[in-house]
Structures are given as structure tokens and as C-alpha cells.
Amino acid sequence: MRDRPKILIVDDEKLNVDLIEAFLIPHGYEILRAYNGDEALEIIFKEQPDIVLLDVMMPGKNGFEVTEAVKNNPETIDIPVLLVTALSDRESRIRGVDAGADDFISKPIDKTLLIARVRSLLKIRAFNMLQKEYRKSLEKEVSKLTEDLQKMYDKLKQAYQDTIYRLSLAAEFKDEDTYNHIRRVGYISREVSKALGLDKNLQELIFFTAPMHDIGKIGIPDDILFKPAKLTKEEFEIMKQHTLIGAKILGGSDVDYLKTGAIIALNHHEKFDGSGYPNGLKGKEIPIEGRVVAIADVFDALTSRRPYKEPFPIDKSLKIILDSRGTHFDPDVVDAFFSVKNNILEIKEQFKD
Ligand SMILES: [Fe+2]
Fold it and tell me: What is the CA(193)–ligand 1 centre distance, in A?
């Protein structure tokens, strides 16, 4: 509240304004004047007075209309309005209450009564201002807390992502893959998910959990995993188990991330034509999470160096993907993959081995 409260006097009779001003000036108030409703509203919005002393009968906007305008605006609703009515004009008082006036005073104005009303309205005004300030500081505090919480959440997510990478790496240590392969599969899967228009939440789940697709390799004997020659039929049967082992490691949890991780571990070797493993699922029977990660995993493996092979050129790898449209891979997923080809090549560049 200001040191010198501002009081706006509104009356179309200049003499009335002079009179009221003469009553108030000795009490140290700053006085503003207006001679019609429109002028009054302009000053109210600009100056935010602490009280408005308002005559009812005025040409143009009358006192009720001005009161309504003040009370219907959140910026001015807290400014007390003191209506000046003719003595015992009951009708005007009822309309004034409806319009939102805070108090009344009758003409001819009694000086003592006027000062008493003004003081009590100023107290209400001060209380309202205090409350407003308190509300504002509370809002500020809440938004700061929300921001802190968001930061903590981001940190936690970051820690979570890093833990997944490291955990997946534990499995990959038994394999030829690299930390960057794990990351790339996550990023490429997210690009493809986006291009497919999957739900935002699902895009994020796939992004975070695709890196765990081979976590089940932790359960495959080293002599099979590291065999430099082609696997025998029996050995390959054991190798296939990494999908089931992964699903077992990640499954049975209520946490969305682990649930999605389990779906991906189980289904990333299924093929669209039904010739994949472990369940030989066909077409759209294969969960979309599996269909997406399959393409990301194969493309990244083709274009990466392995102890037994040089990386295939990008063009050759892309052709292999395209040739497998409808056999190994879901045609829709292949189309989505090619629609974001440039982004995928950028990811390859960004997370080079
Ligand atoms: Fe795999």
C-alpha cells in the first residue's frame, strides 16, 4: 500500500468534486478527479487508485456501469468502490450492491461519515493488497519448487538412461557390440517410431529400452557367443534363447520401462513373414516395439565394423533393408525408416565407433 493513498472522485458536477476534495485533502490523501464514467475508467486502469468515490447519476456511463466494469476486471476488482447516492434512495443501493459496490454514502455528504467510510475501505484495500502479494509470493515459490522437481526428474532420467546403457553393456561385453551400437539402436528406433507416428510416450519408452534388446546374451555360453565359425543348428538354437532370457530378466515388473524392454528383448528377432524367432510371429502379430527395433538393430549391425567383417557401405546396407521389405521387416516400418533416412545417417555420424 502506498504512503499517500490515491482517491479518485467521480462526479459530473465540478462543485461536488471540489467539496469532497476539500474534505479529504487535510487527511493527506492524493486526489484524482474525473467528470464522467469513461474518463473515470481510463484513470482507474491507468492509476489503480486505492478508492473510487463514485456518483451514480452521470451522463454517459453511470455509476453502476462504472462499478461493474471495475469489478469485472481482475486487474481492478480489489479497488473499493464507494457509491454516492441520493439520501434514502433504496433502489440505487440495491442496484449498487448488484453491480459490486463496496459501500454507500448519501448526499449531502457528511464530512465525518465520509472520512470514516474512506478509512475503513482503505483498511480493506490494504488487506486485499497484502493477500495479493502473499498469493504472488506463494505462486513464485510453487513455480520454483516445480522447476526444482523437473530438474530432479531430468537428472533421474539421465541416471536411469546411463544405467540402462551400462547394464546392457554388461551383456554386450560378451559380444562384439559396442557402447555406441547400444546408443545408436536407441536413437534410430526413436526416429523410426516418430516417423511411424507412434504415441509420444511409446516413442520415449522405445528410445530408452531399445538398448537392452540383447541383454539376454548374458546367459549364452561363451563358446557359442564367441565361436569364430558358423554355428551348428544346435548351437543356433541355444543362441536364439537370448530373446527368452532377456524377456525373463526384464519381465514381470510393473514399471513401463521394464515392460517395454521385455517386449523388445523377446521380439527383436521376429520377422514379418513369420520366419523369425523365438515364436515365429507373423506380420502385425509382432509387437510394434519389436518391429521397430529389428530394423534399427540390423541396419546398425550391417554398417558397423565387426571382428569378422568390415562395415558394409551405407548404400549396400540400405539396399539390404529395402530388399527385406515385407520379408524380414514390416513394410510400414521400412517406409518410415526411409522417410527419416537422413536423420538416421546423422545419428550414425554423431555416435561413431
Ligand atoms: Fe539380438
Answer: 19
